């Protein structure tokens, strides 16, 4: 079954299961949780008895509104949810957030949901904004929180989870920059960059590569700081959202038509996000679709996929070392 056929089948005929895992005693962090999929995933986590749910958001006011909405629908105590500031386009904000996380008694799961898609080229912290938010910032966050997850695993005899919200669109990424010696330099070239859907798909492909390589390193090295942390990525499928808000005219009409005919509601899509942080060892290093481990796109598979994965990872870690020297020692 080809990608598009699988996509249509999933959207039209698969009903994602309502999350049932009990999160009692668990501290769970969700980024981008003031709206859309992140908000609905947070609502499920709160409903499922999380001890502490941290809404990691750029806007405090929107985060507080999200908290009020969740509490109103779940009846949980106010102390069960905290709103923390996190700007995924700011390296200093990410670093400060990780330091704050390190002071928590324990962390059980991180759902890295924050992401963007844009039609307009803009450099942020030296990177094209989609690359900074979806790839560099996300991996900076993940590696920054890993030590705390490893510490929690040992102290509480638990298996913490990291789940990154990827996309089935990684299957259609052309990723022409893969042929360049310096991938991230090529991604920063405004003249050759193909933005919007292609750039978004490419960043999601890079996330899949990152998850697979990180999982290998955590599994391979028994002395790693986080040997018992599960890391995976997942897709919620096509969901109703404001992701295409920059589109106008016919593009906006096409997106409206897709949303009307095929898209899942944000609540239904959020079930896939919760499945990511509820999954066990079978999901380690894997890509999930419809709440189950699934096959990746063709660029990821086979010997060539492994070579490209290592190339992407090595260059990404070099980027992160310039941001936060010593970060590679975490793994």
TrEMBL record:
Keywords: Oxidoreductase. The keyword Cytoplasm does not apply. InterPro entries: NAD(P)-bd_dom_sf, SDR_fam. It comes from the Eukaryota. One of its GO terms (molecular function) is oxidoreductase activity. This is Ketoreductase (KR) domain-containing protein. It comes from Botrytis paeoniae. The lineage of its organism: Eukaryota, Fungi, Dikarya, Ascomycota, Pezizomycotina.
């Amino acid at each position: 079954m080809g990608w598009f056929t699988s996509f249509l089948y999933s959207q039209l005929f698969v009903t994602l299961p309502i999350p049932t895992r009990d999160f009692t005693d668990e501290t769970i962090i969700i980024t981008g949780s003031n709206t859309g999929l992140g908000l609905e995933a947070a609502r499920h986590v709160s409903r499922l008895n999380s001890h502490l749910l941290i809404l990691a958001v750029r806007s405090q006011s929107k985060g507080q509104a999200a908290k009020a909405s969740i509490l109103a629908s779940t009846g949980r105590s106010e102390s069960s949810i905290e709103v923390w500031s996190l700007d995924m386009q700011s390296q200093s904000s990410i670093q400060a957030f990780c330091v704050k996380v390190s002071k928590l008694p324990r962390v059980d799961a991180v759902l890295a949901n924050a992401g963007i898609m844009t039609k307009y080229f803009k450099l942020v912290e030296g990177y094209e904004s989609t690359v900074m938010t979806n790839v560099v910032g996300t991996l900076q966050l993940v590696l920054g929180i890993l030590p705390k997850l490893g510490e929690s695993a040992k102290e509480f005899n638990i298996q913490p989870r990291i789940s990154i919200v990827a996309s089935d669109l990684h299957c259609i990424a052309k990723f022409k920059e893969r042929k360049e010696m310096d991938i991230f330099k090529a991604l920063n070239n405004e003249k050759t960059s193909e933005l919007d859907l292609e750039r978004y798909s490419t960043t999601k492909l890079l996330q899949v590569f990152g998850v697979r390589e990180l999982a290998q390193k955590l599994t391979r090295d028994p002395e790693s700081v986080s040997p018992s942390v599960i890391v995976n990525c997942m897709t919620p499928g096509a969901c109703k959202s404001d992701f295409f808000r920059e589109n106008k005219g016919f593009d906006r009409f096409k997106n409206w038509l897709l949303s009307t005919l095929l898209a899942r509601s944000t609540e239904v899509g959020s079930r896939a996000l919760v499945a990511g942080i509820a999954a066990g060892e079978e999901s380690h290093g894997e890509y999930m679709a419809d709440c189950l481990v699934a096959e990746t796109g063709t660029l990821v598979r086979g010997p060539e996929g492994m070579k490209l994965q290592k190339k992407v990872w090595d260059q990404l870690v070099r980027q992160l070392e310039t941001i936060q020297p010593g970060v590679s020692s975490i793994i």
